[in-house]
Write a structure and sequence with these properties.
heterodimer, A: alpha+beta, six-stranded antiparallel beta sheet, 33 helices, about 40% helix, B: alpha/beta, Alkaline Phosphatase, subunit A, eight-stranded mixed beta sheet, 10 helices
Chain lengths: ~1050, ~475
Amino acid sequence: MRRRCAINVRGMKQPARSSAMLFSCGRPRIMAVVVILVLLFVPLPKLFGQVDFVGDQVDFVGDQVDFVGDIAPLLQRRCLSCHNEQDRKGDFSLQTAESAKADGYVVPGDAMASHLLEVISIRDGKSQMPKNSDPLKADQIQLIRKWIDEGAKWPADLQLKESRVSNFEWWSYQPIRRPAVPPMNGDWGRTPIDAFVMQKLDEKGLTVSEPADRRTLIRRVTYDLIGLPPTPQQVQDFVDDSDPQAYERLVDRLLESSHYGERWARHWLDVVKYADTCGYDKDKLRPNAWPYRDYVIRSLNEDKPFSRFVQEQIAGDVLFPGDPDGILGLGFIAAGPWDFIGHVEVPESKLDGKVARNLDRDDMVSGALNTFCSITVQCARCHNHKFDPITQDEYYGLQSIFAAVDRAERPYDLDPGVEKRRQALKIVIADQQKRLELVNAEMEQAGGARLSDLRTKLKALEEKVNFEKSPEFGYHSAIAKRDDLQRWIEIDLGDSVEAAQIILHPCHDEFGGIGAGFGFPIRFQVAVDGEESDMTVVYDRANGDVVNPGLEPIVIELDGRKVRRVRVTANKLAHRKNDYIFALGEVRVLDVDGTNRAKGKPVTSLDSIEAPVRWGRRNLTDGQWPHYQDPDAAKSLQVVKRELAELNVEIETPKRITERTSAAKKLAAAQSELAKLPKGKMVYAAATHFKSQGNFHPTEGKLRPVHVLHRGEISQPRGIAAPGVLPLGLDFSWQMEADAAEDERRAALAKWLTDQQHPLVWRSIVNRMWQYHFGRGIVATPNDFGRMGAIPTHPELLDWLAVEFRDGGDWLKAQSMKSLHRLIVTSSVYRQRSASAEANVVLDGSNQYLWRMVRRRLEAEEIRDSVLQVSGAMNHTMGGPGYYLFKLERTAHSPHYEYHKFDPRDAKSHRRSIYRFIVRSQPDPWMTTLDCADSSQSTPRRNETLTSLQALSLLNSRFNLVMAEMFAARVAKDHDSLEHQVRDAARLVLQRDPDDQELKSMTAYAEKHSMKNLCRFLFNLSEFIYID
Amino acid sequence: MNQMFERRDFLQGASSGFGTMALAMMLQEDANAERAVKVLHHPPKAKRVVQLFMGGAASHLDLWDHKPMLEKHHGEKSDFGEHVEAFQNGLGPWMKSPFSFKPYGQSGKMLSEVVAPLGECVDDMTFIHNLVGKTGVHSQATYLQATGFQRPGFPGMGSWVSYALGSINENLPTFVVLPDHRGFASNGPKNWGAAFLPASSQGTAIFPQRSNPIEDLTPQADFATAEGDRAGLELLSKLNRQFQTQRPDDSRLDARVRSYELAAKMQLSAPEALDISGEPAHIMKMYGLDRQGAKYPDTINPAEEAEYFGRKCLIARRLLERGVRFVQIWSGNDNSFPRRNWDSHENIERDHGPLARGMAVGTAALLKDLKQSGMLDDTIVLWTTEFGRMPSTQGSKGRDHNPYVFTNWLCGGGVRGGLTHGESDQWGYKPLDRENPTQVYDIHATILHLMGIDHKRLTVRHDGIDRRLTDVHGHVIPEIIA
């Protein structure tokens, strides 16, 4: 008899505690009273399709053990990840019969003698193997023992493989078909949505609720679509409107409002982990993240077709070249956290650098797949997905799509003409660089063996010479583009001095590999004057090139001549790197007693680069100059350098010099023009070309090798991953060419994510939108349509919406999010009251079949925006860089975001919350308290918690206090009478008139304790922050 | 410079009617309803945890893990016998600790002079010298030790414990964080965030040295008065109750009314817990708080460190006494200059000296104080950091990161005393037994175990995965349990 696992559930049947137990014991624990809707809505045990491994509970009976059915799956699941042919941990593999039976691990017919049994047997609750894991169950060990005793039969040529799920029998992988809309009885329903919902309600014996009153309706739909309260006037107009289409007109007005994009972009940004800082250590600012935020707002307001919206965010630069939105959309890929240290401070060659980049790609892959497909692909980073048909190889295939991509700033609004010129200049620069390289190589060759010999000597001597220099290098002239310009310095000794010697000390700078004698002029003169006489040249090398002296001082004998001023004039400047300068380390003027009379004396010059401490005029007389401690080696070094210089003169034929000069000139001209081209505005986005920063360099499209990583460990790379999307059990080509370029890979991904046949994408987006309207999705786990996720409550409705949205039809404009909003909010389901009904509660307490509308608390942004709005403080300026709700300090190293030092009176912050600057590692405490999304993780749906902290924040935070003052001032402006002020304030907050009792008690309170305090408490009314 | 604020101002402010306290607080019908683990998985030994976190990576070699070999071979070219990937360039010669070591207690545990005050406690402590990390990058390593994951988005250990066990006293937060007074360490508040757990399980940061230790404790507005707040709360309660009775099916609305009542209670409890003015002189001295009002130099110095850290330790004790479940105390802020954390790349003596001396005074006082009151029996104290430091020099006096081995110690709450479990190798470079190191998962599993929780059964499903503190790893370490 063959026994399969105890749990063998096919299709959509409710299992007992399911095979999830194999991998993680336990399940979400629900708190009865704490209101965490998100948890309450997750149905606990999940439904499973059949997966091709077996459960742990094996009932052992007397028949022969079935290797394929019982033993192989066990070995595959518990042993094979280490003991395979490739890894051979402990020099042992269970992949083939031959390897398993080698070395006495499995001795057919003799379990007692088999080493395998020894290592898996349990002592004190522990076993040697599986390492770092739970022991096998006793009955499993017993089974293995029996299998060995029975001869360890292993079908010939059967190779075991690490366990994987390959079953696509799950609702979300099935093709989407347009279901027929069920017929509707009665006149309750208005839309196909109502028909589908009604059908389910009938099926479950539930009844619909009355329609909500108009005041409730306008409040509900206004918050829902634009995230702001309606004004008292708008409420009144709507309540009084006799037009039967009044509600439809209201919906149209709201969808036309630019506030719509501001509200709905927030949902999208929650999912994509948008923030304005990088997160991780140092949490550096991203000053140009916001153009992506504005792009999302604008795209929604423009009702951009969804496919286009998806494609722009994955590969807009490739698919829509020249369109700024194609680049702005790529802010999607870059929106999540980024490890500054792991990229900028640690080089990619180190393990930590590789780990950072692996995690970075993981964020891109999971971001794209969670957002658009609602599958938890990231579970396959360390092993094949335990529940869904995604292998580790496929996961890394997705990673390799992003192999060349980083997050960085890139321009997005470039003029095509300017771009053309930029490309042309880049070609010129590359050509001239090639020319320069060529002439340099030619000279190398001409130098031959002698050149390389001299260089070797030079290097050895330089190491030997013990060289000392202070951080004050010396004097450095301004940089000249030609060498035939004059530069001078002059020292005033203060008094006339009987001078014995003037000594010039060259300086030293490794810049351009020059080192000793840096900037020493090729032709120069030294002139002095006495007390009154004119300048006299005392040393003249102005008529022929001098050989660079290295660090050898130039000594000029003066024999007691009277000197007051010393001037050194360079007539031919020293070559630096395609430009020319004059630099000098020190000038000493020794008197007849040998005292340096120049020390500390003032220096003037034609010009100077004053860059303390290295460069500055005063360094010329500071008594410090670079010198060698081993003068002999230094002398030999000098000789070698001289020889090298002479050799260079031989090599540098006039023809070569002309060639070099010409190339350098053209190069410089092109570089300077390139630098002057308009740079364009920048957005933080996916990028392959950007400015290097520390160890963080652009790939320029060069693909990094992406390996499949054993257990997700960088230190255990396996083969190179083949780029591809997920097969999804469908008949389309999912693998890309192994040598596909960076842009081709992303373009292929973008096309796959918008493929008409894609079973996940269309369901995913309509489910998300449904969820934001009704508080929960048709699938309650909007980021997970896999076997660990929820199953749809209304599968036909979901598919009907997906098809209608994808293709368009009688009810929806294809790909139009606004038309889907309109359909949903004008449905009868949406217009129901939120009040409870006892009979329905018994059958469906959590309202998953929508027999009423859902009462919800406003989200953090809605509360803040409403407070600003009713206080009259709101400034509705759209877009632009985020405003701060903190004081920013110490940006140079680790920026400090000091919320407690911020003054909420700052009018710049009185704008909608979508425009605030979001700090990833230090989120705004007030917003966090009100369950704002955490930008470190994708938040497909916010928690709704109830804590005393919220009570405290809403009553006493400085923001609420300041707004209470402004609110009081606003209502005082219009009315002298306190009662009128109170009535106005209540209307603004509640969108209704207070009744007499309320008005009386509120006015009494305001009279005694001020209007400001009343306003403060009005912000705390449940009626203000709950929507019926 | 003394930043200590006037306690009196704070108390006066707090007593003016309804004070705000940024406390994470779950609402509950009764003490059992708020907790995710309704029935403990096995009998617990501990109820509370104190986690001492040294930001910047404290050196095991200069505090706890004595290495005679480094003294013997000091200054000799280091040789690790294998290629070592240093974080920066810390592979200079072997370097002995600038501090001297001597044995303490019955167990004869060798401790550095800079942590000498803890000598009196070693017989209650278990040292684990073979902790290994996964990365030498501060941020990731801090996340790993604080949340069990190398990247952001996961709840801290304190959040898991709060979520699982709830509060002991609903008038105080379940999980309190006392950050370094200079600012946040790497990752800031994300180290104690609730992530996907309910917001109520997040750590509540308290800054004892600020004039307003808990943000929004009192309404900072001249129009707010005690009487006005009382009357305002009454009015609010009436109106919210009215709204709720019209919607009797919705328990949230009732809970919301009660959340204001609960908040008012907390407003009284919290300042009392933070007020150390009634502590006797010998206690103040023990915690290094006998120099109140002293002027300190601008450079880092042991007395000032002791005062700041000691104050946090004393407040921790008071919070624990009053039913706070989990207290996390930080030493060291971010990596700016001059160094005010444990990241001694340049000079161990200069930074570790004062930081360790300050930390040891407060820590020893806390351990002794808990012990004399009997609370140490069911309070676990864990000392940790993000990774260790290299036995070779960086520059001439500093040490580079060493994620390959470092030290944790635990004390109280059912942990054995006078024990060293797991050794590092002769240099303190890697575990002595490289095949069997200790990982943060094991520490977390053991702490949960001591609290009566099976770390594998405390899970929350998030985006399709049953998440737990220990990811897919972790073994309880039976050897260190008394």
